[in-house]
Amino acid sequence: MAPEERADAARLLRGFERRFLAARALRSFPWQSLEEKLRDSSGSELLLDILQKTVKHPLCVKHPPSVNYIRSFLSELIRKHEAAHTEPSDELYQALAEVLTAEEPTHCHRSYLLPSGDSVTLCESTAIVSHGTTGLVTWNAALYLAEWAMENPEVFTHRTALELGSGAGLTGLAICKSCRPSAYIFSDCHSRVLEQLRGNVLLNGFSLAPGTDARAQHPGPRTTEAERPQVTVARLDWDTVTAPQLAAFQPDVVLAADVLYCPETVLSLVGVLRKLSTCQKDQRAPDAYIAFTIRNPETCQLLTTELGRAGIPWEEVPRHDQKLFPYEEHSEMAILKLML
Question: Which of 128, 152, 160, 235 is the most exposed place for a label (fewest CB within 10 A)?
């Protein structure tokens, strides 16, 4: 195989690997490029390479996506193979047979590969809305904010970060693994989200600081374990938390992703940001970054209007070029930097 062909094959394998481990929609996979490759005599070998990078990947074996997802992926892979080759692939059929009778659990895993070679693996609900909340799955703006953070690690290095509405924990875990914060406080208010969040922190090799269920608790002195941040999971209700409770966290940076679901949520968010603006550390308020997918322009307009009423200046962060994670290509996302 020529060097250019090897590079093309490697890109194709990487595309399948990243999308499959993150359990992205099958329509987002590079099927057309695969069909073109399958017309070559090396097509069967390529399919086996894809199998090793997806269903047989060590991350998938240990922390698999949903059974239905694996089943649908293998069925599509077999269809592509049968359309190009007359000889059946025993390996593909065997892999499918292994999941045909498996039961579908209520939770699945998604894994996101980091540039360092490390990964973030999350246990998530198989339903978008579960137990009355959308916080049990990862949304696109969390991926977008994590990408931006890894391009701008100096924002977090040796600093204490407080995340509002952490959900499944993708953004914070990526920052903890890539940006060397001294401490990171994940927060949410839904009991089931907090339970899953604690599990995801442990799943990714971090230990939890004592008293992680406190409504607001300073993360305490930094541990010396190989520059690892001290991680806290806190229950934080935006409507009832007080400014002194927020100040106890002593945050240098505040961030949130995909928390603009309705006007009521926007008002609560601005309310807690106003309280955070009074939290002085070293004679300055924390930096704040809010990432969101632009689903409803009126909701975004409400956010900027309410920030103006609260006297919180803001500016839009320039779009970053490096796309590290697979998410919807046509999603319009933005990050606002707030001057608290």
Answer: 128
Rg of the chain, C-alpha, whole Å: 22
**DSSP secondary-structure letter at 130?**
B
Alpha helix stretches (DSSP H) within the chain: 3-21, 31-38, 43-53, 58-62, 67-84, 90-100, 140-151, 170-178, 191-203, 243-247, 263-276, 297-309
Residue 155: the pLDDT is 97
- Can you tell me the distance from the alpha carbon of 186 to that of 296, in angstroms, rounded to the nearest whole number? 27
For the question of whether the overall pTM of this predicted structure is more than 0.85, the answer is yes
Which residue's structure tokens are 């292994």? Answer: 98
* pLDDT grade for 137, boundaries at 50, 70 and 90: low
Which pLDDT tens digit goes with each residue over 251-288? 999 999 999 989 999 999 999 999 999 987 777 889 99
Buried b vs exposed e over 73-107: b needs ≥16 C-beta within 10 Å?
bbeebbebbeebeeeebeebeebbeebeeeeeeee
**DSSP β-ladder status, 119-125 and 253-257:** unpaired
Distance CA 340, CA 338 (A): 6
Separation of alpha carbons 255 and 337, rounded Å:
9
Q: Is 62 helix (H, G, I), strand (E, B) or coil?
A: helix
CB neighbours of residue 240 within 10 Å? 10
Q: What are phi and psi of 41, to 5 degrees?
A: -65, -20
